[in-house]
Specification:
With about 140 residues, this protein is of the alpha/beta class. It has one domain: Glutaredoxin (3-Layer(aba) Sandwich), CATH 3.40.30. Helix content is about 35%, strand content about 25%. The strands form 2 sheets. Strands 5-4-3-6-7 form a 5-stranded mixed beta sheet, sandwiched between helices. The radius of gyration is 14 Å and the shape is globular.
């Protein structure tokens, strides 16, 4: 987790320091790719859940970890996402996160706290079936 806190993350206009993640109780790592139909189907559900849970104050940040082979493909899939991402220019960090969370396919969602402790892996069905409601128990810990 220390490596991501020291990295530069991207938004749609500027880079931001990864240390910004310390401000949120929950961080959801979204491993995806523009070529994945399942990712294209998941993203709108995730955007809705993200906006719902953060409606009354930001408690969740999502970090998109692209599995695309090029920066332009990363940008293509990232353009519809209102959260942070990791540029393909930072392949070392992307690979470290894939290994840390044992990601071998996309889409994959991993929920952590701001200290990097894994709270839940494989959260995709939770998002699709329950929107932001599934996150509430994690906010009371």
């Amino acid at each position: 987790m220390e490596k991501i806190l020291n990295a530069q993350l991207v938004t749609h206009g500027t880079d931001v320091p990864g240390s910004r993640l310390k401000n949120y109780p929950l961080i959801l790592f979204y491993f995806g790719a523009c070529w994945s139909v399942a990712c294209k189907d998941l993203t709108p559900y995730l955007v809705l859940a993200y906006n719902q849970i953060n409606r009354d104050g930001k408690v969740l940040e999502i970090v998109y970890v692209s599995q695309d082979p090029t920066e332009s493909q990363f940008r293509e899939s990232f353009r519809e996402m209102p959260w942070l991402g990791i540029s393909r220019r930072n392949m070392d960090l992307i690979e470290d996160l894939r290994n840390l969370f044992a990601v071998d396919s996309v889409p994959q969602l991993v929920l952590t706290n701001s200290k990097g402790q894994i709270l839940k892996k494989d959260c995709m069905n939770d998002v699709v079936q329950s929107g932001s409601r599934w996150l509430r128990p994690y906010l009371t810990r």
